[in-house]
Amino acid sequence: MFVLQRFLGHLSIMAEMIRGLNVVLLGRTGIGKSASGNTILGKEAFKSKKSSTSVTRDVAVESGRVCGRWVTVYDTPGLFNTELSDQLMTEIARSVYLSSPGPHAFLIVFPVNMRFTEHEQQIPQIIEMMFGEEVLKYSFILFTHGDLLEGESVEKLIEKNCRLRDLVQQCGGRYHVFNNKAQNNREQVNDLLQKIDSMIEQNGGGHYSNQMFEDEEQRKQHEEKQIQDEIKRFLLLLLIFCCC
Predict the structure, then answer these.
(1) pLDDT band at 216 (very low <50, low <70, confident <90, very high)
(2) Homologous superfamily of domain range 2-208
(3) 69: β partners
(4) How far apart are CA 80 and CA 82, in angstroms?
């Protein structure tokens, strides 16, 4: 009987993993990415520290059962970290795509009290460069420090800030608010998962696939080759001109 119960328990966990979610956290350093991962998983899975120096150097991956399903969270290094070279950004994207079957949702994290500058406006474009042109169809804006709203609705905050409004619109109008000081409030997590489910349904029931990443990599390589060919042609013409 014990062996049967153990076997059925393993089957139950496998079923949860099959219908699980892969969630990627993106954003600047010190804005609550890791804390949001901890809130989602309901445990201290990631190192969380309010600092301008990135705690996360590589992609950190943690999993757990959340609201009756298996959820895997990918905590990425902070965007605009001075140590993030183009090569490292590519490696971050590649490590995320090693997940199976692929990311279901990208959560772009902003604190509600952040001052939105040109840097913040560039984040969607940087994410597109890392993951491909279709990535924003699978993206949410996740606002942290929800306790700082102090009764003001996040909708009002979005409405009165044109830069923020544009960011939300680029993500299909999808957003959610977390109060990471209230990790025991599982309703905020359940609401997020329901919103992700709705987005997945709108996207045809799938995830952001490895094929999409590979297509994007091929497109980048093709563009780089075109640029190199143009440079070679220019240098050849310059050489011919100098020899005449």
Answers:
(1) low
(2) P-loop containing nucleotide triphosphate hydrolases (3.40.50.300)
(3) 66
(4) 6
